[in-house]
Amino acid sequence: xxxxxxxxxxxxxxxxxxxxxxxxxxxxxxxxxxxxxxxxxxxxxxxxxxxxxxxxxxxxxxxxxxxxxxxxxxxxxxxxxxxxxxxxxxxxxxxxxxxxxxxxxxxxxxxxxxxxxxxxxxxxxxxxxxxxxxxxxxxxxxxxxxxxxxxxxxxxxxxxxxxxxxxxxxxxxxxxxxxxxxxxxxxxxxxxxxxxxxxxxxxxxxxxxxxxxxxxxxxxxxxxxxxxxxxxxxxxxxxxxxxxxxxxxxxxxxxxxxxxxxxxxxxxxxxxxxxxxxxxxxxxxxxxxxxxxxxxxxxxxxxxxxxxxxxxxxxxxxxxxxxxxxxxxxxxxxxxxxxxxxxxxx
Length: 346
Hints:
Layout: H1 7-12, H2 33-40, H3 45-49, H4 52-65, E1 71-72, H5 79-84, E2 89-91, E3 95-97, H6 105-109, H7 116-119, H8 121-134, E4 140-145, H9 147-156, H10 164-172, H11 174-198, E5 202-207, H12 215-221, H13 223-232, E6 238-242, H14 249-252, E7 259-261, H15 268-275, E8 280-285, H16 294-308, E9 313-317, H17 327-344
Parallel strand pairs: 1-4, 4-5, 5-6, 6-7, 7-8, 8-9
Antiparallel strand pairs: 2-3
Helix pairs in contact: 4-8, 9-10, 9-11, 10-11, 11-13, 16-17
């Protein structure tokens, strides 16, 4: 199906665009009363993720309400460990909790390389339902967590400030870490290929805990597996967003992907230099800007757009939008990007 708005795809491929495309990580979610109405009618977060029609509904809400240039399928990176046999619970106000963790070879034997059509079919169905409902209005982004980030949760058992159990494994049992990363990578590659087959127009790989590794460990335990996934997905553009991995930007220039996501700590000019001219950059406004006045949001958004320049940029925040953000402030950010970048690109 021909896209009516293909700005995101063209910008990712480095084509000239009439204005900068804009979307937000975590745009489908708690900032919208419409999302909360759907969520509150259910038993919890996981029921929403696993019900294709409802996942599609909340995926499309920000397109209707915030007027963004892309939808991102409503799901979670932790569906992958669940599909592998490492189940999680989503605890209100606490985040994910894994009743069983992977700490030794016996734990590893309990896992499988998941078949996306068997173990993650609800996500693929949600993509198909969303595509039909969007009817080509905007592209649909599919996603998964990067292997290191998924390992971090499976070994740690929950979110953490240090991920000391997961990082410790890289020193105490690197062989086990690589075996687990191999299984996660094989699962993730098949899963993302299946998302593309189901209709995803672009793929994003989230390495949320990239920044807690040393550069040496990142190059051994994270980068090769991301690189392998990028090499496998050649049907649609791929974005790699590795939060905090400023030390790896030069390495990212060699990845077989179109776009590199920047968090708000990353200097735009230096990132552009490190990544090189052949990659599009995505980001990187501080999500906390959206707590400020409309005037400040407009001013800072214009400054960001000037720094990135009119081409090879996808406007976004440097991380997911925070749940207590006023949707009107988000609309201000989106509209400012659209209006100001249109004047820049003339």
